[in-house]
Protein backbone atom coordinates (compact mmCIF):
# COMPACT_ATOMS: atom_id res chain seq x y z
CA UNK A 1 0.00 0.00 0.00
CA UNK A 2 1.17 3.54 -0.76
CA UNK A 3 0.07 7.08 0.01
CA UNK A 4 -2.16 7.19 -3.07
CA UNK A 5 -4.33 4.45 -1.57
CA UNK A 6 -5.31 6.89 1.19
CA UNK A 7 -7.12 9.04 -1.40
CA UNK A 8 -8.73 6.48 -3.68
CA UNK A 9 -11.80 6.18 -1.44
CA UNK A 10 -13.83 8.92 0.24
CA UNK A 11 -13.81 9.45 3.99
CA UNK A 12 -17.19 8.85 5.62
CA UNK A 13 -18.25 10.36 8.92
CA UNK A 14 -19.12 8.21 11.95
CA UNK A 15 -21.94 10.22 13.56
CA UNK A 16 -23.03 7.49 15.97
CA UNK A 17 -20.61 7.04 18.84
CA UNK A 18 -18.92 3.64 18.88
CA UNK A 19 -17.11 1.91 21.71
CA UNK A 20 -13.50 1.06 20.99
CA UNK A 21 -11.57 -1.74 22.67
CA UNK A 22 -8.22 -0.80 24.19
CA UNK A 23 -5.30 -3.20 24.37
CA UNK A 24 -2.65 -2.26 26.90
CA UNK A 25 -3.04 0.06 29.86
CA UNK A 26 -3.56 3.81 29.97
CA UNK A 27 -2.64 5.81 33.08
CA UNK A 28 -5.51 6.52 35.50
CA UNK A 29 -5.09 10.28 35.09
CA UNK A 30 -5.80 10.16 31.35
CA UNK A 31 -9.47 11.07 31.35
CA UNK A 32 -10.75 13.52 28.77
CA UNK A 33 -11.41 14.01 25.07
CA UNK A 34 -9.03 14.07 22.15
CA UNK A 35 -10.28 16.23 19.27
CA UNK A 36 -8.68 16.37 15.86
CA UNK A 37 -9.45 18.26 12.65
CA UNK A 38 -8.58 17.22 9.13
CA UNK A 39 -9.60 17.50 5.49
CA UNK A 40 -12.08 14.76 4.71
CA UNK A 41 -14.41 15.30 1.74
CA UNK A 42 -12.72 15.80 -1.63
CA UNK A 43 -15.47 14.63 -4.00
CA UNK A 44 -18.90 16.27 -3.90
CA UNK A 45 -22.14 14.34 -4.56
CA UNK A 46 -22.24 16.09 -7.95
CA UNK A 47 -18.95 14.40 -8.87
CA UNK A 48 -16.95 17.64 -8.64
CA UNK A 49 -13.48 17.02 -7.21
CA UNK A 50 -11.43 19.43 -5.14
CA UNK A 51 -7.88 20.05 -6.34
CA UNK A 52 -5.70 20.29 -3.24
CA UNK A 53 -5.43 18.33 -0.01
CA UNK A 54 -6.24 21.32 2.17
CA UNK A 55 -9.35 22.10 0.07
CA UNK A 56 -11.03 18.97 1.44
CA UNK A 57 -13.97 19.82 3.67
CA UNK A 58 -13.34 19.74 7.39
CA UNK A 59 -14.10 16.65 9.43
CA UNK A 60 -13.80 16.68 13.22
CA UNK A 61 -12.85 13.54 15.14
CA UNK A 62 -13.70 12.96 18.79
CA UNK A 63 -12.14 10.30 21.01
CA UNK A 64 -13.57 10.21 24.53
CA UNK A 65 -11.02 8.57 26.81
CA UNK A 66 -11.83 7.37 30.31
CA UNK A 67 -9.14 5.11 31.71
CA UNK A 68 -9.18 2.08 29.38
CA UNK A 69 -12.46 2.96 27.64
CA UNK A 70 -12.64 4.94 24.41
CA UNK A 71 -15.65 6.11 22.40
CA UNK A 72 -15.19 7.40 18.85
CA UNK A 73 -17.26 9.54 16.51
CA UNK A 74 -16.70 11.98 13.65
CA UNK A 75 -18.72 14.64 11.85
CA UNK A 76 -18.19 16.93 8.90
CA UNK A 77 -18.16 20.55 10.05
CA UNK A 78 -21.40 22.31 9.12
CA UNK A 79 -19.59 25.28 7.61
CA UNK A 80 -21.28 27.49 5.03
CA UNK A 81 -18.61 26.43 2.54
CA UNK A 82 -19.48 22.76 3.08
CA UNK A 83 -23.26 23.24 3.00
CA UNK A 84 -23.13 25.35 -0.16
CA UNK A 85 -20.78 22.91 -1.90
CA UNK A 86 -23.11 20.00 -1.14
CA UNK A 87 -26.19 21.96 -2.28
CA UNK A 88 -24.79 23.57 -5.42
CA UNK A 89 -22.26 20.91 -6.44
CA UNK A 90 -19.28 23.28 -6.64
CA UNK A 91 -17.27 25.38 -4.18
CA UNK A 92 -18.78 28.86 -3.89
CA UNK A 93 -16.16 30.03 -1.38
CA UNK A 94 -12.47 30.73 -2.03
CA UNK A 95 -10.42 27.64 -1.19
CA UNK A 96 -6.65 27.28 -1.47
CA UNK A 97 -6.15 25.28 -4.66
CA UNK A 98 -9.68 25.03 -6.09
CA UNK A 99 -11.29 27.95 -7.87
CA UNK A 100 -14.40 29.62 -6.51
CA UNK A 101 -17.61 29.54 -8.54
CA UNK A 102 -20.37 32.14 -8.45
CA UNK A 103 -23.00 31.58 -5.78
CA UNK A 104 -26.31 30.88 -7.59
CA UNK A 105 -28.35 32.74 -4.96
CA UNK A 106 -26.38 35.98 -5.13
CA UNK A 107 -27.51 38.86 -7.29
CA UNK A 108 -25.31 40.62 -9.82
CA UNK A 109 -24.35 43.42 -7.41
CA UNK A 110 -23.22 40.95 -4.73
CA UNK A 111 -21.24 39.01 -7.31
CA UNK A 112 -19.57 42.21 -8.53
CA UNK A 113 -18.59 43.18 -4.98
CA UNK A 114 -17.24 39.68 -4.36
CA UNK A 115 -15.17 39.89 -7.53
CA UNK A 116 -13.39 43.03 -6.28
CA UNK A 117 -13.29 42.39 -2.53
CA UNK A 118 -12.70 38.78 -1.41
CA UNK A 119 -15.77 38.54 0.83
CA UNK A 120 -16.27 34.83 0.20
CA UNK A 121 -13.18 33.39 1.83
CA UNK A 122 -13.91 29.88 2.99
CA UNK A 123 -15.00 29.02 6.52
CA UNK A 124 -13.84 25.44 5.89
CA UNK A 125 -11.81 25.50 9.09
CA UNK A 126 -9.80 22.29 8.90
CA UNK A 127 -6.49 23.94 9.74
CA UNK A 128 -6.37 23.90 13.52
CA UNK A 129 -8.36 23.50 16.74
CA UNK A 130 -7.84 25.36 20.02
CA UNK A 131 -9.56 26.47 23.22
CA UNK A 132 -10.34 29.98 24.42
CA UNK A 133 -12.45 30.86 27.46
CA UNK A 134 -13.19 27.15 27.95
CA UNK A 135 -14.76 26.90 24.49
CA UNK A 136 -13.47 24.96 21.49
CA UNK A 137 -12.78 26.72 18.19
CA UNK A 138 -11.47 25.62 14.82
CA UNK A 139 -9.83 27.94 12.32
CA UNK A 140 -7.96 28.34 9.08
CA UNK A 141 -5.92 31.30 7.84
CA UNK A 142 -8.95 33.42 6.99
CA UNK A 143 -11.23 35.63 9.05
CA UNK A 144 -13.76 33.08 10.32
CA UNK A 145 -13.75 31.09 13.55
CA UNK A 146 -16.20 28.30 14.34
CA UNK A 147 -17.14 27.62 17.94
CA UNK A 148 -17.63 23.86 18.21
CA UNK A 149 -20.12 22.04 20.41
CA UNK A 150 -17.92 19.50 22.24
CA UNK A 151 -20.60 16.79 21.98
CA UNK A 152 -22.24 17.24 18.57
CA UNK A 153 -19.01 18.42 16.86
CA UNK A 154 -21.07 21.03 15.02
CA UNK A 155 -20.57 24.77 14.79
CA UNK A 156 -22.79 26.64 17.24
CA UNK A 157 -21.39 30.08 16.38
CA UNK A 158 -19.54 31.50 13.41
CA UNK A 159 -17.38 34.47 14.36
CA UNK A 160 -16.37 36.94 11.68
CA UNK A 161 -13.10 38.66 12.60
CA UNK A 162 -13.77 41.37 10.02
CA UNK A 163 -15.98 42.89 12.71
CA UNK A 164 -12.68 43.53 14.52
CA UNK A 165 -11.13 44.71 11.22
CA UNK A 166 -9.12 41.48 10.87
CA UNK A 167 -8.86 40.14 7.33
CA UNK A 168 -6.48 37.17 7.79
CA UNK A 169 -4.58 35.37 10.55
CA UNK A 170 -1.90 32.74 10.86
CA UNK A 171 -3.06 29.18 11.49
CA UNK A 172 -1.71 28.98 15.05
CA UNK A 173 -2.90 30.89 18.10
CA UNK A 174 -0.47 30.93 21.04
CA UNK A 175 -1.58 31.19 24.67
CA UNK A 176 0.40 32.79 27.48
CA UNK A 177 0.23 32.10 31.21
CA UNK A 178 -2.63 34.58 31.72
CA UNK A 179 -5.00 32.72 29.40
CA UNK A 180 -4.79 35.39 26.69
CA UNK A 181 -4.10 34.12 23.18
CA UNK A 182 -2.25 35.86 20.36
CA UNK A 183 -1.84 35.62 16.62
CA UNK A 184 -0.22 37.41 13.73
CA UNK A 185 -2.86 38.96 11.51
CA UNK A 186 -3.64 41.35 8.67
CA UNK A 187 -6.08 44.20 9.17
CA UNK A 188 -8.03 45.75 6.32
CA UNK A 189 -9.21 49.13 7.52
CA UNK A 190 -10.51 51.52 4.85
CA UNK A 191 -8.99 49.27 2.20
CA UNK A 192 -5.48 49.58 3.65
CA UNK A 193 -3.67 46.40 4.68
CA UNK A 194 -1.57 46.40 7.83
CA UNK A 195 0.24 43.50 9.57
CA UNK A 196 -0.61 43.19 13.26
CA UNK A 197 -0.20 41.10 16.36
CA UNK A 198 -3.64 40.62 17.88
CA UNK A 199 -4.65 39.54 21.36
CA UNK A 200 -7.77 37.75 22.51
CA UNK A 201 -7.88 39.03 26.08
CA UNK A 202 -7.59 36.75 29.09
CA UNK A 203 -10.73 35.91 31.09
CA UNK A 204 -11.06 37.92 34.29
CA UNK A 205 -12.08 36.45 37.62
CA UNK A 206 -15.13 37.52 39.59
CA UNK A 207 -13.71 38.13 43.06
CA UNK A 208 -17.05 37.58 44.80
CA UNK A 209 -17.38 33.95 43.70
CA UNK A 210 -13.89 33.28 42.32
CA UNK A 211 -15.34 32.30 38.96
CA UNK A 212 -14.22 33.30 35.48
CA UNK A 213 -16.24 35.88 33.58
CA UNK A 214 -18.75 34.95 30.90
CA UNK A 215 -17.24 32.50 28.40
CA UNK A 216 -18.95 34.29 25.52
CA UNK A 217 -16.44 35.54 22.95
CA UNK A 218 -17.18 39.22 22.33
CA UNK A 219 -15.32 40.40 19.22
CA UNK A 220 -15.76 44.05 20.13
CA UNK A 221 -14.35 43.79 23.66
CA UNK A 222 -12.06 40.76 23.55
CA UNK A 223 -9.98 41.38 20.40
CA UNK A 224 -7.35 44.11 20.26
CA UNK A 225 -4.17 44.96 18.41
CA UNK A 226 -1.01 44.90 20.54
CA UNK A 227 1.54 45.65 17.79
CA UNK A 228 1.64 46.85 14.20
CA UNK A 229 4.24 46.35 11.49
CA UNK A 230 4.90 48.03 8.15
CA UNK A 231 4.19 46.13 4.96
CA UNK A 232 7.31 44.41 3.65
CA UNK A 233 6.05 44.93 0.09
CA UNK A 234 3.47 47.17 -1.59
CA UNK A 235 2.16 44.30 -3.72
CA UNK A 236 2.45 41.12 -1.69
CA UNK A 237 2.34 39.57 1.77
CA UNK A 238 4.66 36.91 3.14
CA UNK A 239 2.79 33.68 3.76
CA UNK A 240 2.52 33.21 7.53
CA UNK A 241 1.06 30.00 8.94
CA UNK A 242 2.68 30.50 12.35
CA UNK A 243 4.62 33.03 14.40
CA UNK A 244 6.83 33.01 17.49
CA UNK A 245 6.21 34.26 21.02
CA UNK A 246 8.56 34.27 24.01
CA UNK A 247 8.09 35.82 27.44
CA UNK A 248 9.06 39.30 26.22
CA UNK A 249 8.97 39.19 22.42
CA UNK A 250 6.89 38.33 19.37
CA UNK A 251 8.67 37.10 16.25
CA UNK A 252 7.22 37.27 12.75
CA UNK A 253 9.24 35.58 10.00
CA UNK A 254 9.02 37.06 6.49
CA UNK A 255 9.82 34.38 3.94
CA UNK A 256 10.19 34.78 0.15
CA UNK A 257 6.97 32.79 -0.37
CA UNK A 258 4.36 35.47 -0.84
CA UNK A 259 0.75 36.13 -1.84
CA UNK A 260 0.14 38.86 -4.42
CA UNK A 261 -2.89 40.61 -3.01
CA UNK A 262 -3.90 42.28 -6.30
CA UNK A 263 -4.08 38.88 -8.01
CA UNK A 264 -5.86 37.49 -4.97
CA UNK A 265 -8.46 40.27 -4.92
CA UNK A 266 -9.20 39.69 -8.62
CA UNK A 267 -9.29 35.92 -8.24
CA UNK A 268 -12.98 35.47 -8.93
CA UNK A 269 -12.74 37.43 -12.19
CA UNK A 270 -9.57 35.70 -13.40
CA UNK A 271 -10.42 32.25 -12.05
CA UNK A 272 -7.18 32.13 -10.09
CA UNK A 273 -6.98 30.23 -6.83
CA UNK A 274 -5.14 31.42 -3.74
CA UNK A 275 -2.31 29.04 -4.63
CA UNK A 276 -2.10 30.58 -8.12
CA UNK A 277 -1.47 33.96 -6.48
CA UNK A 278 1.53 32.73 -4.50
CA UNK A 279 5.10 33.36 -5.63
CA UNK A 280 8.37 31.76 -4.56
CA UNK A 281 11.61 33.72 -4.94
CA UNK A 282 14.48 31.20 -4.76
CA UNK A 283 16.96 34.06 -4.34
CA UNK A 284 15.04 35.90 -1.64
CA UNK A 285 16.25 36.29 1.93
CA UNK A 286 14.39 35.58 5.14
CA UNK A 287 13.79 38.38 7.63
CA UNK A 288 13.01 38.02 11.34
CA UNK A 289 10.89 40.85 12.73
CA UNK A 290 11.21 41.04 16.53
CA UNK A 291 8.63 42.98 18.56
CA UNK A 292 8.86 44.00 22.21
CA UNK A 293 5.69 42.66 23.88
CA UNK A 294 5.70 45.31 26.61
CA UNK A 295 5.64 48.27 24.20
CA UNK A 296 4.51 46.84 20.86
CA UNK A 297 7.57 48.43 19.26
CA UNK A 298 9.66 46.70 16.62
CA UNK A 299 13.24 45.99 17.69
CA UNK A 300 15.46 48.14 15.45
CA UNK A 301 18.00 45.43 14.73
CA UNK A 302 17.55 43.79 11.32
CA UNK A 303 17.96 40.01 11.31
CA UNK A 304 18.41 38.22 7.98
CA UNK A 305 19.32 34.68 7.01
CA UNK A 306 19.57 32.31 4.06
CA UNK A 307 16.65 31.47 1.82
CA UNK A 308 14.08 28.96 3.09
CA UNK A 309 10.37 28.24 3.12
CA UNK A 310 8.47 27.33 6.28
CA UNK A 311 5.04 26.47 7.66
CA UNK A 312 5.61 25.73 11.35
CA UNK A 313 7.58 27.60 13.98
CA UNK A 314 7.96 25.07 16.80
CA UNK A 315 8.87 27.29 19.75
CA UNK A 316 10.58 30.56 20.64
CA UNK A 317 12.28 31.33 23.94
CA UNK A 318 14.85 33.58 25.62
CA UNK A 319 18.08 32.55 27.27
CA UNK A 320 20.47 35.14 28.67
CA UNK A 321 20.91 37.77 25.93
CA UNK A 322 19.54 35.61 23.12
CA UNK A 323 16.27 34.75 21.46
CA UNK A 324 16.16 31.12 20.24
CA UNK A 325 13.77 30.17 17.45
CA UNK A 326 13.16 26.60 16.25
CA UNK A 327 11.56 26.34 12.79
CA UNK A 328 10.81 23.45 10.43
CA UNK A 329 12.21 24.65 7.11
CA UNK A 330 12.16 23.56 3.46
CA UNK A 331 14.33 24.44 0.48
CA UNK A 332 11.22 25.42 -1.51
CA UNK A 333 7.39 25.27 -1.30
CA UNK A 334 7.42 21.95 -3.18
CA UNK A 335 5.84 20.19 -0.20
CA UNK A 336 2.76 22.36 -0.71
CA UNK A 337 2.48 21.89 -4.47
CA UNK A 338 3.04 18.13 -4.00
CA UNK A 339 -0.31 17.98 -2.20
CA UNK A 340 -2.41 18.40 -5.34
CA UNK A 341 -4.87 15.50 -5.19
CA UNK A 342 -4.21 14.42 -8.77
CA UNK A 343 -0.56 13.92 -7.82
CA UNK A 344 -1.38 12.15 -4.56
CA UNK A 345 -3.78 9.76 -6.30
CA UNK A 346 -1.48 8.99 -9.22
CA UNK A 347 2.02 8.97 -7.81
CA UNK A 348 1.74 9.43 -4.06
CA UNK A 349 3.79 11.91 -2.07
CA UNK A 350 7.43 12.15 -3.09
CA UNK A 351 8.89 15.56 -2.20
CA UNK A 352 12.57 16.15 -2.87
CA UNK A 353 13.09 18.48 0.06
CA UNK A 354 11.94 17.07 3.40
CA UNK A 355 11.40 19.47 6.26
CA UNK A 356 14.24 19.78 8.76
CA UNK A 357 14.38 21.49 12.13
CA UNK A 358 16.55 24.61 12.09
CA UNK A 359 17.60 26.51 15.20
CA UNK A 360 18.31 30.24 14.93
CA UNK A 361 19.87 32.29 17.72
CA UNK A 362 19.21 36.04 17.69
CA UNK A 363 21.36 38.27 19.92
CA UNK A 364 18.84 40.60 21.51
CA UNK A 365 20.87 42.49 24.14
CA UNK A 366 24.40 43.66 24.92
CA UNK A 367 25.93 43.35 21.45
CA UNK A 368 26.13 47.00 20.33
CA UNK A 369 29.80 47.32 21.29
CA UNK A 370 30.81 43.98 19.79
CA UNK A 371 33.11 43.90 16.77
CA UNK A 372 31.65 43.54 13.30
CA UNK A 373 32.19 40.33 11.30
CA UNK A 374 32.37 38.37 14.55
CA UNK A 375 30.06 35.60 15.74
CA UNK A 376 27.95 36.95 18.61
CA UNK A 377 26.61 33.57 19.76
CA UNK A 378 28.41 32.34 22.87
CA UNK A 379 26.28 29.31 23.72
CA UNK A 380 27.82 25.89 24.27
CA UNK A 381 24.94 23.74 23.01
CA UNK A 382 24.40 25.19 19.54
CA UNK A 383 26.45 25.76 16.40
CA UNK A 384 24.10 28.51 15.17
CA UNK A 385 25.88 31.78 14.43
CA UNK A 386 24.98 35.47 14.31
CA UNK A 387 27.41 37.74 12.49
CA UNK A 388 27.21 41.46 13.19
CA UNK A 389 27.36 43.31 9.87
CA UNK A 390 26.92 46.78 11.33
CA UNK A 391 25.34 48.43 14.36
CA UNK A 392 21.78 47.31 13.62
CA UNK A 393 22.20 44.46 11.14
CA UNK A 394 22.90 40.81 11.98
CA UNK A 395 23.16 37.89 9.55
CA UNK A 396 22.11 34.54 10.99
CA UNK A 397 23.20 31.02 10.18
CA UNK A 398 21.19 28.13 11.54
CA UNK A 399 22.03 24.88 13.25
CA UNK A 400 20.39 21.65 12.05
CA UNK A 401 20.20 19.68 15.32
CA UNK A 402 18.75 16.52 13.75
CA UNK A 403 18.79 14.91 10.32
CA UNK A 404 15.23 13.75 10.91
CA UNK A 405 12.57 14.64 8.31
CA UNK A 406 9.56 16.40 9.81
CA UNK A 407 6.55 18.50 8.94
CA UNK A 408 4.86 18.83 12.35
CA UNK A 409 6.38 18.91 15.83
CA UNK A 410 4.66 19.18 19.20
CA UNK A 411 6.05 19.59 22.71
CA UNK A 412 4.86 20.20 26.26
CA UNK A 413 2.81 23.32 25.60
CA UNK A 414 3.13 24.50 29.17
CA UNK A 415 6.52 25.61 27.84
CA UNK A 416 5.27 27.80 24.99
CA UNK A 417 7.65 30.76 24.96
CA UNK A 418 10.03 29.10 27.43
CA UNK A 419 13.11 26.95 27.17
CA UNK A 420 12.21 23.36 26.41
CA UNK A 421 14.14 20.18 25.83
CA UNK A 422 11.95 17.58 24.10
CA UNK A 423 9.90 17.68 20.94
CA UNK A 424 7.87 15.01 19.18
CA UNK A 425 7.70 15.02 15.40
CA UNK A 426 6.29 13.36 12.30
CA UNK A 427 6.77 13.78 8.57
CA UNK A 428 3.73 13.79 6.33
CA UNK A 429 2.52 10.34 5.20
CA UNK A 430 5.22 8.42 7.05
CA UNK A 431 5.17 5.47 9.44
CA UNK A 432 7.54 6.86 12.07
CA UNK A 433 7.19 9.11 15.09
CA UNK A 434 10.23 10.69 16.74
CA UNK A 435 11.19 12.01 20.15
CA UNK A 436 14.06 14.49 19.90
CA UNK A 437 16.23 15.66 22.78
CA UNK A 438 17.54 19.14 21.97
CA UNK A 439 20.21 18.93 24.70
CA UNK A 440 21.79 15.52 24.09
CA UNK A 441 20.65 15.25 20.43
CA UNK A 442 19.33 11.76 21.22
CA UNK A 443 16.63 10.48 18.86
CA UNK A 444 14.02 7.87 19.78
CA UNK A 445 11.69 6.38 17.19
CA UNK A 446 8.40 4.48 17.12
CA UNK A 447 7.50 2.83 13.81
CA UNK A 448 4.48 0.86 12.67
CA UNK A 449 5.26 -2.60 11.37
CA UNK A 450 2.33 -2.41 8.92
CA UNK A 451 3.38 -1.01 5.53
CA UNK A 452 -0.16 0.27 4.95
CA UNK A 453 -0.09 2.46 8.08
CA UNK A 454 0.45 6.22 8.06
CA UNK A 455 0.74 8.13 11.33
CA UNK A 456 -0.46 11.59 12.26
CA UNK A 457 0.66 14.37 14.57
CA UNK A 458 2.12 13.21 17.91
CA UNK A 459 0.19 15.13 20.57
CA UNK A 460 1.83 15.38 24.00
CA UNK A 461 -0.64 15.05 26.91
CA UNK A 462 1.05 16.00 30.21
CA UNK A 463 0.57 14.13 33.45
CA UNK A 464 -1.30 16.67 35.64
CA UNK A 465 1.09 15.89 38.50
CA UNK A 466 4.24 15.85 36.37
CA UNK A 467 7.55 16.96 37.82
CA UNK A 468 9.50 16.44 34.58
CA UNK A 469 8.96 18.00 31.17
CA UNK A 470 8.36 14.70 29.36
CA UNK A 471 6.15 13.04 31.99
CA UNK A 472 3.08 12.32 29.91
CA UNK A 473 1.61 10.34 27.02
CA UNK A 474 1.88 10.75 23.26
CA UNK A 475 -1.31 10.20 21.24
CA UNK A 476 -1.23 9.67 17.49
CA UNK A 477 -3.81 8.62 14.92
CA UNK A 478 -2.86 5.80 12.56
CA UNK A 479 -4.73 5.47 9.26
CA UNK A 480 -4.58 2.32 7.15
CA UNK A 481 -4.45 2.92 3.40
CA UNK A 482 -7.20 1.29 1.38
CA UNK A 483 -9.21 0.17 4.42
CA UNK A 484 -11.41 1.70 7.08
CA UNK A 485 -9.32 0.13 9.82
CA UNK A 486 -7.82 2.78 12.05
CA UNK A 487 -6.28 3.10 15.48
CA UNK A 488 -4.97 5.38 18.15
CA UNK A 489 -1.58 4.61 19.60
CA UNK A 490 -0.42 5.74 23.02
CA UNK A 491 3.29 6.04 23.84
CA UNK A 492 5.01 6.62 27.15
CA UNK A 493 6.57 10.01 26.41
CA UNK A 494 9.67 9.27 28.50
CA UNK A 495 10.64 5.90 27.00
CA UNK A 496 8.76 6.46 23.73
CA UNK A 497 7.49 2.91 23.92
CA UNK A 498 3.92 1.86 23.16
CA UNK A 499 1.70 1.39 26.22
CA UNK A 500 -1.68 0.95 24.54
CA UNK A 501 -3.57 1.03 21.28
CA UNK A 502 -7.22 1.29 20.32
CA UNK A 503 -8.24 -0.29 17.01
CA UNK A 504 -11.60 0.46 15.43
CA UNK A 505 -13.58 0.34 12.21
CA UNK A 506 -14.04 3.87 11.00
CA UNK A 507 -12.62 6.25 8.46
CA UNK A 508 -10.00 8.67 9.72
CA UNK A 509 -7.43 10.91 8.13
CA UNK A 510 -3.97 11.45 9.54
CA UNK A 511 -5.41 14.94 9.90
CA UNK A 512 -3.84 18.25 10.72
CA UNK A 513 -3.78 19.24 14.39
CA UNK A 514 -5.35 17.96 17.59
CA UNK A 515 -6.28 19.00 21.10
CA UNK A 516 -6.76 17.11 24.37
CA UNK A 517 -9.28 18.48 26.86
CA UNK A 518 -9.13 16.98 30.34
CA UNK A 519 -12.41 15.94 31.93
CA UNK A 520 -13.49 18.47 34.52
CA UNK A 521 -13.39 17.15 38.06
CA UNK A 522 -16.47 17.62 40.23
From TrEMBL:
One GO process term, biological-process aspect: carotene catabolic process
Cofactor(s) demanded: Fe(2+)
InterPro entries: Carotenoid_Oase
Binding-site residues for Fe cation, renumbered to this chain: 172, 241, 312, 513
UniProt KW keywords: Iron, Metal-binding, Oxidoreductase
PANTHER family for the chain: BETA-CAROTENE DIOXYGENASE, CAROTENOID ISOMEROOXYGENASE
Name of the protein this chain belongs to: Uncharacterized protein
Species of provenance: Strigamia maritima
Lineage: Eukaryota, Metazoa, Ecdysozoa, Arthropoda, Myriapoda
Amino acid sequence: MSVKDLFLTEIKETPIQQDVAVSGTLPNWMSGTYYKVGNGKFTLPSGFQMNHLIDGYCIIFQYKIDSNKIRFRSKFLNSDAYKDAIEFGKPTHAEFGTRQYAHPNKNMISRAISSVFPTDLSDNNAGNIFTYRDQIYCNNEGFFLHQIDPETLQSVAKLDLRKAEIFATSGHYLQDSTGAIYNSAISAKLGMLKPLIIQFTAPTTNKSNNSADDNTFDLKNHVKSVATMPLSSMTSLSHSHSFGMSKNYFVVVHQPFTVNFFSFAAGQITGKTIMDCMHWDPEGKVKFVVIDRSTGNIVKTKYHTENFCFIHIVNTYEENDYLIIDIITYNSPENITCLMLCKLRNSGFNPNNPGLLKRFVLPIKNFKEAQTKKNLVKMSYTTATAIKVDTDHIVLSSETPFEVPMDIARFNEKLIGHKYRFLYSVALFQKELYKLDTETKEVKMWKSTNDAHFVGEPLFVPNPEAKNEDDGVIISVVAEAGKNNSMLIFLNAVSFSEIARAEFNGDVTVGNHGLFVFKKQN
